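Chain A, query sequence.
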Amino acid sequence: MGKDRTDEPVNRKRAISLKLTVLTRQLHKRFDQRVASIGVTRSQWTMIAVISRYPGATQRQVAERLEMSEASAGRLIDRLLADGLLMRRPKEDDRRAHCIHLTDSAREILETISAIAVEHENAVFEGFSPDDLERLDAYLDLMAANSAASD
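Chain A, predicted structure.
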């Protein structure tokens, strides 16, 4: 008997899904190892990156961006404050809240992380043409939209 061709698209989708899952883990692991060499953990660099993108954000806003509890964000912020990477300033319109900002030390770390990211991306996308990258970006956007629609 021949192979049932009706299962091929299902099997192909399953194989692609598995590849994306494995690839995501590999990308995270490789990048995290490189960043760990400068003494920064994933949770620390993601916090620094979010605050860089949203300077003056409150602890609650940072927690929402990182999809973590406000208490967990607070502990991480406290740790980065103690390490001299973040600073808190009173929020002008709410005396109970504080805005979080990067220090110069955190900005230096962010520059190093950015350089590591460029090296990492260059290695990962070796052999891709600009058209390949454009198509891949469009496919990933479609997958993200489909995934969001199914929530």
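The beta strands are 57-58, 86-91, 94-102. The chain has a mean pLDDT of 91.
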